[in-house]
Amino acid sequence: MQTAGLLGVLGHDVTVFEARDRVGGRLETVHDGDATYEAGGEWIDADQPRLHKLINSIQGGLDEAVREPSLAIFKGEVRRTDDLWPDLVEDETAAQLSARALPRHPELPAWKNRKFAKYDSLDLASFLKQNCQSERGFWWMNANLRSDEGDDLNRIGLLGWLTGYIHYIDRENLNRGESEMSAYRTPLGFSRLLEAMQGAMLGELRLGQVLRRVTQLAGKVTLHFDDTSEVFDRVILTLPPPCLEHIVFDPPLPSAKRCAIEACGMSRAIKIALQFKQPWWNERGFCGRFHCDGALQQMWDGTRGGAPVLIAYICGERAVEWTSLTEPVSAALYELSQYFPEATESFERGWIHDWVHDPYSRGAFSHYAPGYALEHSQNIVVPFDRVHFAGEHTATWVGFIEGALESAERVVQEVLHCDKN
Ligand SMILES: Cc1cc2nc3c(=O)[nH]c(=O)nc-3n(C[C@H](O)[C@H](O)[C@H](O)COP(=O)(O)OP(=O)(O)OC[C@H]3O[C@@H](n4cnc5c(N)ncnc54)[C@H](O)[C@@H]3O)c2cc1C
User: Fold this and answer.
1) Which superfamily does CATH assign the domain made up of 82-180 to?
2) What spacing in Å lies between the alpha carbon of 25 and ligand 1's midpoint?
3) Does residue 239 line the site of ligand 1, with CB under 6 A?
4) For residue range 350-369, what is the model confidence (pLDDT) as tens digits?
5) Is the CB of 51 under 6 A from ligand 1?
6) Atom 20 in ligand 1: which residue has the minimum CA distance?
7) For ligand 1, what atom is nearest to the CA of residue 401?
8) What CATH code would you report for 269-354?
9) What pLDDT does 97 receive?
10) Within 10 A of 101 (CB to CB), how many other CB atoms are there?
């Protein structure tokens, strides 16, 4: 949407094809009865300039998140995060200091860091194991980073993570910039923002068009959908990598490009939203946010106006397990009631959002697996003749909404440059 908007303003004739019957992709604000919450992307960091600018221009400002007091629940013991176990705090500090002491100045984009090749084959879980002495400390660091990365940490390459960590290192707070992370949300929800962008877009939007095939011949690109095909001068594909994998290219993509698409990690994350009669967590003296070592992993207050909603954000192998349950919402409520029995009484209804099996994302957001930063990340960005690639997986803010916006700016420059030459 952002790419189309930028090109339209520059006078290009743009058509957007979208497989779903709505715009937004992995951004979707659910309005169901009196409940409103974000089913996909939700949080905005303090230092994501493109997203701030966009939201400020359309919705006039951002909502500051209430993130404290929050809780940590480990082996049944509940602690406020301003009163954590000393061994956990020690491990957290040690791991943060070690992360800062690794490559002092990794560069962006990630593929430029050949001198740090030794980190590329390592994974983030091994790094944490080396730096945490206590079981609790390892659990805590693992739980926090797994939420950020959206998957189990043995799938996350250390160099790829470090190049993302650059965004945090410059933040003032040593605690991984915690106070600046997940600092804001959109006041009216992402769907409203996207509706406004759609309204302002100069160009045509066609919903329900599932791309199957891309052919290039004689300086033209043809897009083939189920019932129709259309010819263009240039095409920008913003499909997530696992969806791109299913597109047939004729002539075929160069092997380096295909490998970069196939090897790109895609996080496995789901959300389960639970609506309650009242925000019982306020009476309990916390903001609704907690990490626990049980099946729920992490919850927060997802209320975006209307009825109180708690969101469980579950990642990695656990997320896949949840998607195979016949009653995931009841299971989530049961798990929650183990720590907070009042949740059962207050419960009204719930929803699951399974991004792992969503046919048009096939995962939540991309990450660099071990080895990806140096071997593949450069190739995921490069165009293939008149076909260009954008989306969060092609940005330095990999995995973030900010990355999707960053990629729009980059790909527009790329197209302008190609048109000139
Ligand atoms: C559960 C969850 C939580 C998240 N939390 C955050 C967060 O707190 N903060 C944050 O910054 N980011 C978060 N993200 C990530 C963020 O939502 C994404 O990085 C961002 O929205 C991706 O934008 P995109 O334009 O690159 O891709 P998408 O939004 O996925 O757009 C790609 C589009 O391609 C379409 N498509 C796919 N296949 C086809 C096809 N064959 N034919 C036609 N169209 C097709 C899709 O329907 C989609 O609309 C989260 C994501 C999820 C799922």
Assistant:
1) Guanine Nucleotide Dissociation Inhibitor, domain 1 (1.10.405.10)
2) 5
3) yes
4) 999 999 999 999 999 999 99
5) no
6) 401
7) 11
8) 3.90.660.10
9) 85
10) 8
| Beta pairing partners, 188 | none
Q: Which two tokens stand for residue 216?
A: 């290039």
- Residue to mutate, 365, 388, 398, 405, ligand 1, most ligand atoms under 8 Å from C-beta: 365
Q: Which of 2, 51, 239 has most ligand 1 atoms within 8 Å of CB, for mutation? A: 239
Distant-in-sequence, close-in-space partners of 117: CB < 8 Å, separation ≥ 6: 159, 374
Q: Which residues, other chains included, contact 271 with Cβ-Cβ below 8 Å and sequence gap of 6+?
A: 39, 40, 311, 312, 313, 314, 352, 353, 355
Q: Is 190 in the pocket of ligand 1 (CB under 6 A)?
A: no
Cα separation, 248 vs 200, in Å, equals: 32
Q: Maximum Cα–Cα distance for the chain, whole Å?
A: 68
Q: Quick count: other Cβ atoms within 10 Å of Cβ 231?
A: 11
What are 205's strand-pairing partners? 16
Nearest to 3 by CA among 251, 234, 230, 159: 234
Please give the model's pTM, rounded to 2 decimal places. Answer: 0.96
5-47 residue pLDDT tens: 999 999 999 999 999 999 999 999 999 999 999 999 999 998 8
Whether the predicted pLDDT of 412 surpasses 80: yes
* Tokens read off for 19: 């497989």
Q: CATH topology for 2-62+184-265+361-420?
A: FAD/NAD(P)-binding domain (3.50.50)
Whether residue 256 contacts residue 50, with contact meaning beta carbons closer than 8 Å, is answered with: no
**Residue ranges covered by each domain of the chain:** 2-62+184-265+361-420, 82-180, 269-354
Tokens of 302: 């997802």
* pLDDT digit string, tens, across residues 108-152: 899 999 988 999 999 999 999 999 999 999 999 999 999 999 999
Measured by CA distance, the residue closest to atom 28 of ligand 1 is: 25
